[in-house]
Amino acid sequence: MIEVKDLIFSYGKDKQALHGIDFTVGKGEIFGFLGPNGSGKSTTQKILTGILKGHNGHVSLFGKDITNSYNKEFFKNIGVLFEYPYLYANLSGLDNLNYFASFYPKEQRQDIEVLLDRLAFKKDYIKKPVSSYSKGMRQRVSMARALMTSPKLLFLDEPTSGLDPAGAVLFRNIIEEERKKGTTVFLTTHNMLDADLLCDRVAFIVNGNIAVIDTPKNLKIQNSNQKIVIDYMLNGKRENKIIEASELKQGILFPHDEIISIHSQEPSLEDVFIQYTGRGLS
Amino acid sequence: MEYSFLSLLKKDFKMMLSSKFLLLIIGSLVLYSLYINLVYIKTDQAIYPVYLFDPAESIENASSQIIRVDNMEELQLRTSDGYAVGIDATGAEPKIIMVASGLDSSDQIRTAYALSLLSPGQSTPAEVIGQNSKEMKSRREITSEFLFFELAAVGFLGLASTLFKEKHMGVIRIHGVMPISKSLFIFSKLILFLLADLVFAFLLTVINLGLATGLSVLPAILVQTVILSIIMALVGFFCAVWLPDFRQFSLLYLVLAIFITTPVFLVGQTSITWNWINYHPMYHLFMAIKNAYFEMPIGETVYYIVCVVFIVALFLVAHKTLTREMAKEG
């Protein structure tokens, strides 16, 4: 679906944002693009969505080199959720969606009210101006805008931003459902939980270079210290012990009365990110 | 595509309504018309009153516009305002008594006028050219000024304020990832503001020149309105997209309104002559509107060619600026 080879981009002469990055995203894959601010995430997404022109290297989407394929057909096949919920504040959510939908063929559009219902949007607000919406409601309308034309390729930038935990779970479920329909998702985020739970593969980008690409699971396994922490009770006293994972094969040999918990010392995705890039995400 | 364009027009019309731009132009129309009809055409200053002290009544054929006074004290009192002119006919030659205006040329005109009233039949009557009464001349003159100001300043501000709203809401960027042409995005705004300006020009002209006169000059006025409206809308579009916030835009607007429009008005409406004004593009646009109101020939082919080239260049610049804005960070 997406193929990027040796992508280079500069803002002016002295400000190179991308230093020759390579990656591919398969059809129906959720691909996470993670990096701190200023790492080149947005630049890459803007190039892929046709907003930014003048790159070097090879970029193809839907099997076509993008240099000459940014036309109406291309834009009909993508859906973009921006980092901020950009909407006409003086119009209602429904009017916003009807307006944006009017640029797409009728047969491509989903029923907007059904879609908003799926996104748990409060029905009372559907005809009220966006200026009266909370951030979570605006995010729901923006997500509806990205999904309403049944795109083959979805670009999502911080999709769960501004949502409460229940809303974040709902959005993750919806993204998962879209993938099941065959939609490819290019997810740009700071949120490691989203990336961990949703992405088939993630790429860590820092200073315009991709540090590593792999599945979240592999990254965590590869960077695990293979230690196990065991909490136990002995003579009425709570104790803990760290052992090598391989030792567990032989059973728990040290003296104990009761095992309370066994935790692997698997790193979080953020720990792995810091390990690869030397930088935190925020 | 047609349906998309209608959606853009509908959305822009809603933006126009929410920005209160229509209210502003209706308010301007009412205000300008009230000023023209209730104030401007009635404010023509009377010609210098001329007082004559002629105790011997030696001047027999004096004009009926001369006001006779009984003594020198009264003559001096009446002429003490710096405007009236007095004639002391006590000697062999009439003497002019007046308070100097401070402008030598003006004082000479006052003197010549006062002396001409002593023997009114001797001056050669001026040939009357054209059919404008003083009132109609005033109406045409002030209406052309108001239309120019409205198109150059208010229309420019209207489009820019609407666009700043869209920019502030971030929605311009969304259009960059949708199957919609950037040119259509610009066209829909141009067409809407052009229509508003055409309706304004029509009403302003008909209300203040009367239906018959108004309709006779309207075709030429509407042509000039189209040219100036499109140019100013494109300049407003470019400035609103290019400048980061409304504060900077306000400063630019002030510069445009004061330092660009003022010299045009001064040269176009007064006796001030500056040769450099011929290089001022707004001067030619203003004179074209003024000439349209006075049913005078407007510009040559080169004027229209330059206008079209300028509009195309402005459109390309606006298009490029819009593309850059769409690529900006949120």
What is the string of SSEs of chain B from the N terminus onward?
HHEEHEEHHHHHHHH
- Please outline the major beta sheet of chain B: 4 strands, mixed
Distance between the termini of chain B: 28 Å
Structural class by SSE content of chain A: alpha/beta
How far apart are the first and last residues' alpha carbons of chain A, in Å? 29 Å
Question: What's the total helix number of chain B?
Answer: 11
Order of the strands making up the biggest sheet of chain B: 2-1-3-4
| Averaged pLDDT of chain A | 87
**Cα-atom Rg of chain B, whole angstroms?**
27 Å
Overall helicity of chain B = 55-70%
- Kindly state the mean pLDDT of chain B as a whole number? 86
Describe the protein's architecture and organization:
The complex is a heterodimer of chains A (282) and B (330). In chain A, 29% of the residues lie in helices and 29% in strands. By secondary structure, chain A is of the alpha/beta class. In chain A, helix 3 runs parallel beside helix 5. Chain A has nine helices and 13 strands. The two termini of chain B are 28 Å apart. Chain B contains eleven helices and four strands, in the order H-H-E-E-H-E-E-H-H-H-H-H-H-H-H. Chain B has a four-stranded mixed beta sheet. In chain B, 67% of the residues lie in helices and 5% in strands. By secondary structure, chain B is mainly alpha-helical. Chain B is elongated, with a radius of gyration of 27 Å. Chains A and B meet through helix 2 of A and helix 1, helix 5 and helix 6 of B.
SSE blueprint:
The complex is a heterodimer of chains A (282) and B (330).
Chain A: E1 2-10, E2 16-25, E3 30-34, H1 41-48, E4 56-61, E5 64-65, H2 72-76, E6 78-81, H3 93-101, H4 112-118, H5 135-147, E7 153-157, H6 165-180, E8 184-189, H7 192-198, E9 201-206, E10 209-214, H8 216-222, E11 227-234, E12 237-244, E13 258-264, H9 269-277
Parallel strand pairs in A: 3-8, 3-9, 6-7, 7-8
Antiparallel strand pairs in A: 1-2, 1-4, 4-5, 9-10, 11-12, 11-13
Helix pairs in contact in A: 3-5
Chain B: H1 2-18, H2 21-39, E1 50-53, E2 66-69, H3 72-78, E3 85-88, E4 95-97, H4 104-116, H5 134-169, H6 171-175, H7 182-209, H8 211-242, H9 246-269, H10 281-293, H11 301-326
Parallel strand pairs in B: 1-2, 1-3
Antiparallel strand pairs in B: 3-4
